[in-house]
Amino acid sequence: MEKISANIAKVNSRGIGVVLDKNNNTLLEVPFSLPNEQVQFTLDDEGQAKLIRLEPSSSDRSEPRCPQFTKCGGCSLQHASESFVSNWKKSIVVDKLKRRNIYSNFLTSFVTPERSRRRAVFSGRRTKKGTIVGFHSPRSNNLVSIAGCIILDCRILSFLPGMERITGLACTRSSAIKIYVSNSENGLDVYVEGAKPLDLVLQESIASIAVEYQLARLSWDGELIASIKPPVQIMGNVKIIPPERFFMQATKDSEMVMVQDICESLEDETIVADLFSGCGTFTLPLSQTKKVMAFENSFQMLKALDNAYRDAPNLKIIETSIRNLRNNPLSPDELSGIGGVVVNPPRSGAANQCKELAKSNVKKVLIVSCNPETFSRDASILITGGYNLDWVRIIDQFRWSHHIEVIGNFSKNF
Questions:
Q1: What phi and psi values does residue 155 have, to the nearest 5 degrees?
Q2: pTM to 2 decimal places
Q3: What is the CA radius of gyration of the chain?
């Protein structure tokens, strides 16, 4: 078959270099490539492209430092310079907004430091030689060890031998488990999912690992095995004990930037609402100076927030409500009297809630989003309802991956 030479045209939204055909459609995807680098490929009888060779030559290329890069599915852009990644992530958000005729001022992007990832979900399984704990390779069930990872906090990485021992105890030859690990103020908070049923011997073995590694909490498919110290998190200078498998921002550094932006934007408001509040990442800092109404679909997370609020001095009023905002958004009448709203939805966004906000008299809305596509859609809904998008900030808390966190500040035109 004929060999064809072409240049990588761009890096797509998944962090993969692409060759485009004459109609600007993707002809070939080339992982770990950068714009203007040359590739050779062939076309089969059905017109499908097959890569033969990549010639890495971009001035934006950087030497990857993680020994697992290209094998592990956690990072896709360690081969690119920091400036390239930062500009590329901004271009993705700009393009998503531009497609909806939205243009905004961009504040300085924030890039999270190395080894600052404070939560992660690992897979574990037994092998012929022992056990392996890590992340899956791209588009594969193959597991790659996390040894040498430069993303994870060192406290999590140092628990790798403990996770390997847990895997050996928890798995059969054909099964796999998930291990949820989060940093807390008193040690690691660990939840094991999909493991063998507990018996007395297994429970004692697992508990001994918790003691050896001084884990704050270790749970086994919903059953508490050990709680040496409370798995405390600090949110807005308030101590909170979250439930198992709770949500928090991936890095503390990113969370601090988000909290500062939100508190400064809502500084002049006296009553605000925190939608999809979780355990109170934004509720607790805001409640130091204003009344906050927190809405969340998880009873367990709101209970943790309520308990933290009752135990904390010098906070304003916090009112919590269990609510599925996706199916039952707050109406304009319910939003009456609220000066500012924080919306931190899942990847699917908050279209239904934004439609109601667009009809409301809320002066300020801040959206924290992990999906530029749904962020741009929700932004369009608010703008159609009379809001301005005053600024956008990109938070790169999933460093070297294609994931992008965005925070946008909207103000109502009256």
A1: -65, -35
A2: 0.94
A3: 23
Token pair recorded at residue 277: 């509040």
pLDDT (average), residues 355-382 = 98
Note the pLDDT of residue 138.
84
Domains of the chain: 3-61 (2.40.50.140), 84-113+248-412 (3.40.50.150), 119-233 (2.40.50.1070)
DSSP code, position 305: H
| Structure tokens that stand for 242 in this block | 């979250």
Residue 54's alpha-carbon distances to 4, 37, 40, 382, in angstroms, are: 12, 7, 7, 44
Catalytic residue among 66, 72, 354, 370: 370
Sorting pLDDT into bands at 50, 70 and 90, what band is 302?
very high
CA 407 – CA 380 distance, rounded (Å): 15
CB 305 within 8 A of CB 318: yes
149 is annotated as an active-site residue? no
In this predicted model, what pLDDT tens digit does every residue of 86-118 receive, in sequence order? 999 999 999 999 999 999 999 999 999 999 999
